[in-house]
Design goal:
Elements lengths: L3 E5 L3 E7 L2 E9 L3 H14 L5 E8 L5 E5 L9 H10 L5 E8 L6 H18 L3 E5 L1 E9 L3 H10 L3 E7 L2 E9 L3 H9 L5 E4 L2
Antiparallel strand pairs: 1-7, 2-3, 3-6, 4-5, 4-6, 8-10, 8-11, 9-10
Helix pairs in contact: 2-3
Length: 200
């Protein structure tokens, strides 16, 4: 299993024209399905006259969390070609929505596949891909006098702080890069008074 994955850094869009039809592809970095739905709703509001809002996204690391939609185009002509381009760049946590304005000429199945694929390629070419460490989420509980030491370890090993609560004790939720997991756990347990447990 890999220690890192590829995703895109920021939102990008590109436009492809084919026989009067306009295909505008929007690429988004996403973390959740809900986040994707927000982007889709916004695009539908911004492009109410578009005839189709086709899309594909892939989330997570097991390869099972993806969805494609042809949104009324002939089956297999939009969502699949879009997903094909996300996959050809080995991206995850990525969504592409292609908004189509109809230009009066039917493109046929090969023409549609090519248009959706090309628009997606153009949008994905505009945005840098980034490699992100696969992180394992842990919860740490400790006396706040230990906060500096814990934060130093987190910084040193590039851990992500996901959530933080401070009452009598500090409760910290962190993502530890998989490649550095053993070192980080060793350092944290070495502090003795830090309670470390994985979150399933």
């Amino acid at each position: 299993m890999a220690d890192a994955y590829l995703t895109i850094e920021k939102i990008a869009f590109a436009e492809f024209k084919e026989r009067g039809s306009k295909f505008i592809a929007f690429a988004y970095p996403i973390q959740t399905v809900d986040e994707f739905k927000v982007h889709l709703q916004l695009l539908k509001k911004e492009h109410p006259k578009a005839v189709h809002h086709c899309f594909a996204y892939r989330l997570g690391l097991d390869g099972n969390n993806f969805r494609v939609s042809d949104d009324g185009e002939p089956s297999g002509t939009a969502g699949r070609p879009i997903l094909g381009q996300i996959d050809s760049k080995v991206l995850t946590d990525t969504a592409v929505i292609v908004v189509r304005y109809f230009g009066g000429t039917l493109l046929g199945v090969p023409g549609l596949i090519n248009a959706y694929k090309t628009a997606t390629i153009m949008a994905l070419q505009l945005v840098p891909t980034v490699e992100k460490a696969i992180e394992i989420v842990y919860e740490l509980q400790f006396d706040y006098t230990r906060l500096n030491e814990v934060m130093t370890i987190c910084k040193q090993f590039g851990c992500t702080v996901i959530g933080q609560e401070q009452q009598l004790f500090c409760l910290l939720k962190i993502g530890i890069p998989k490649a550095r997991l053993q070192e980080v756990l060793f350092k944290l347990t070495d502090l003795h008074t830090v309670d470390v447990k994985p979150i399933k």
